[in-house]
Amino acid sequence: MLGKGGKRKFDEHEDGLEGKVVSPTDGPSKVSYTLQRQTIFNISLMKLYNHRPLTEPSLQKTVLINNMLRRIQEELKQEGSLRPVFVTASQPADPLSDNFREAQPAFSHLASQPLLPTDFVSTTPLESCLTPASLLEDDTFCTSPAVQHEGPTKPPPPALQPVKDSFSSALDEIEELCPAPTSAEAAAAQTAAGDSKDHASESSVQKPEGFPESRAAEPKLMDSLPGNFEVTASTGFLTDLTLDDILFADIDTSMYDFDPCTSATGAASKVAPVSADELLKTLAPYSSQPVTPNQPFKMDLTELDHIMEVLVGS
Amino acid sequence: FSGAGGGNDIQWCFSQVKGAVDDDVAEADIISTVEFNHSGELLATGDKGGRVVIFQQEQENKTQSHSRGEYNVYSTFQSHEPEFDYLKSLEIEEKINKIRWLPQKNAAQFLLSTNDKTIKLWKISERDKRPEGYNLKEEDGRYRDPTTVTTLRVPVFRPMDLMVEASPRRIFANAHTYHINSISINSDYETYLSADDLRINLWHLEITDRSFNIVDIKPANMEELTEVITAAEFHPNSCNTFVYSSSKGTIRLCDMRASALCDRHSKLFEEPEDPSNRSFFSEIISSISDVKFSHSGRYMMTRDYLSVKIWDLNMENRPVETYQVHEYLRSKLCSLYENDCIFDKFECCWNGSDRQVSFSSTHTIVMTGSYNNFFRMFDRNTKRDITLEASRENNKPRTVLKPRKVCASGKRKKDEISVDSLDFNKKILHTAWHPKENIIAVATTNNLYIFQDKMN
């Protein structure tokens, strides 16, 4: 940070973060370039997800930060350090478990602890934590899949695994419509899909459109980010409302539903900009309450999906 | 600088400062926009609390030939109130983003003020007489008993203390999903545009229940959104032409005669990136925060994070002039990104247009703000620039401002300020130049400074 009035000593290592632009091709300075890139990446994430405004955050700022993240991820991808985006539900999370454990503290203590670069040495946990943008369009918080994935590895909450199964089964219908790369990814999508129907937001209409697209697309790493736009620049304005919104403008009980599956996304989806505090709230059930999933949830999910498809005609 | 009359540099002197003295800044007092009216007699400011304060210049005192009239408060009114968007559970800020004056047509003054969502047309009128001598009413307003009326008289107007009233004449609402960043009145003085992050709407000043969308860059799939509109302005002379700038450093010129929806630009102004300056922050610092046409309409000026650029409308591939505002910040971009300063939206302005040498361009000086309450001026003719500070210290009326200098690196000379000592909370985002005279208004966080050139 820039000091105010204090005299700073010349620091030889400072160039790693500040100072001249380091090109990725420079030999010895490649490390500092990577460090710089990682730092910027983390800062960008913090900016997006630590925001707790009472008013809508600036769309321009969100766009610029997202572009920054995208660019870095594109670079990382090209450098080959990316692993496949989503882990299938069938795959045990063990190969990634250590990563998840590393990622876990970062996400669950978002408010109190800065994301450490070491948490993201492997980008996989990060990627698997990010939701496809279309899901974010439904105002679901992007870390909900992360929490899902953490389920298999961490003793609490065991509830997540059964939930995932219900997702997988409920997804069958939708998977007929378009290719689903991984069931886990679809599961992540499904979480959002199911919850988004609960609340009155135009994004619930947009979801089906973006939904099949994103699932069919390439690693969602980049796609996941811009979804923030819908979260933050919610299109739920009168001019953008359609009949479907009014149809689904039913009671949003997601805030009061303490099922960890729905509360994770529902609570977050109710208010467009998600704050660290809200994240903590949504994560709390996961870590402390082993709640069994409810069957009705599974069935509602299927039905609602079906209705959505019919309405949107996808 | 070269003044219009000869080779004398402009010497800027402190004239006035408005606003609270204490360092504890009330959020509502943060100035968010500054604008002179077309004659320069009135100076309007908008703040974060939704208030508009208008200052009026005193008539020049003939005996005090060494200074121009002072600006005193003329009218204060609450333009916008905070609102709540129930659909999104978010507050709508009452902060005034922009004020634009209409040219004066009669005794009253009109201005447009806007917050993030709603534009309002305000009428500011003076009342200095009132009718007296009604037949049916007493002076205090009570009705007289008709039976006591024995004679009739004609009410007459008698002078009273000047009262300045502001009343909202039009409210242009519900046309913007995203945050309004610009309003611009057309040269036809009948229509105006309002721009938000993704759309630009065209309004008629008389019609509030309808507006036409003329630019829409919202992608069908919001996932694909990578660029937003940052500023827009009508051409000063061609009522069919306007420009809008983007977060990617481009400016598009559109002609409304081409189609109803101007999604295809007529001209695209973009400077290719300098590969030697490429960094992670290249895109962010290229984002244009302000665009202003010159009075002739031949040139336009844009402000991005580190520089001011002058564009010739006839040349799209690069600006004709570029001025570095605070290049020493280029090595600090990471920190400025972290503390969000990199997103600060600085405005820029041309000097007034009246006193000009005939063969040179209409405007010779451009002004813009920086940090540490510094502001910068660039003389386009001499290519000289100056850094001045808006501060209450050492500023007595008619004291000439001392040029400031920032030391980028190496040994700091006496009176220089090192980059690390700059106060990034003291930013000058809004400046305005009197349309006819060398009087400038510079807004710090919550104070308004007025400087004049030294008259001999």
TrEMBL record, chain A:
<protein>
    <submittedName>
        <fullName>SRTD2 protein</fullName>
    </submittedName>
</protein>
<feature type="compositionally biased region" description="Basic and acidic residues">
    <location>
        <begin position="8"/>
        <end position="18"/>
    </location>
</feature>
<dbReference type="InterPro" id="IPR052262">
    <property type="entry name" value="E2F-SERTA_domain_protein"/>
</dbReference>
<feature type="region of interest" description="Disordered">
    <location>
        <begin position="181"/>
        <end position="213"/>
    </location>
</feature>
<dbReference type="Pfam" id="PF06031">
    <property type="entry name" value="SERTA"/>
</dbReference>
<feature type="compositionally biased region" description="Low complexity">
    <location>
        <begin position="181"/>
        <end position="193"/>
    </location>
</feature>
<feature type="region of interest" description="Disordered">
    <location>
        <begin position="144"/>
        <end position="164"/>
    </location>
</feature>
<feature type="region of interest" description="Disordered">
    <location>
        <begin position="1"/>
        <end position="29"/>
    </location>
</feature>
<dbReference type="InterPro" id="IPR009263">
    <property type="entry name" value="SERTA_dom"/>
</dbReference>
<feature type="domain" description="SERTA">
    <location>
        <begin position="33"/>
        <end position="80"/>
    </location>
</feature>
<dbReference type="GO" id="GO:0005634">
    <property type="term" value="C:nucleus"/>
</dbReference>
TrEMBL record, chain B:
<dbReference type="GO" id="GO:0019888">
    <property type="term" value="F:protein phosphatase regulator activity"/>
</dbReference>
<dbReference type="InterPro" id="IPR000009">
    <property type="entry name" value="PP2A_PR55"/>
</dbReference>
<dbReference type="InterPro" id="IPR015943">
    <property type="entry name" value="WD40/YVTN_repeat-like_dom_sf"/>
</dbReference>
<keyword id="KW-0853">WD repeat</keyword>
<dbReference type="InterPro" id="IPR018067">
    <property type="entry name" value="PP2A_PR55_CS"/>
</dbReference>
<dbReference type="GO" id="GO:0000159">
    <property type="term" value="C:protein phosphatase type 2A complex"/>
</dbReference>
<protein>
    <recommendedName>
        <fullName>Serine/threonine-protein phosphatase 2A 55 kDa regulatory subunit B</fullName>
    </recommendedName>
</protein>
<keyword id="KW-0677">Repeat</keyword>
<dbReference type="InterPro" id="IPR001680">
    <property type="entry name" value="WD40_rpt"/>
</dbReference>
<comment type="similarity">
    <text>Belongs to the phosphatase 2A regulatory subunit B family.</text>
</comment>
<dbReference type="InterPro" id="IPR036322">
    <property type="entry name" value="WD40_repeat_dom_sf"/>
</dbReference>
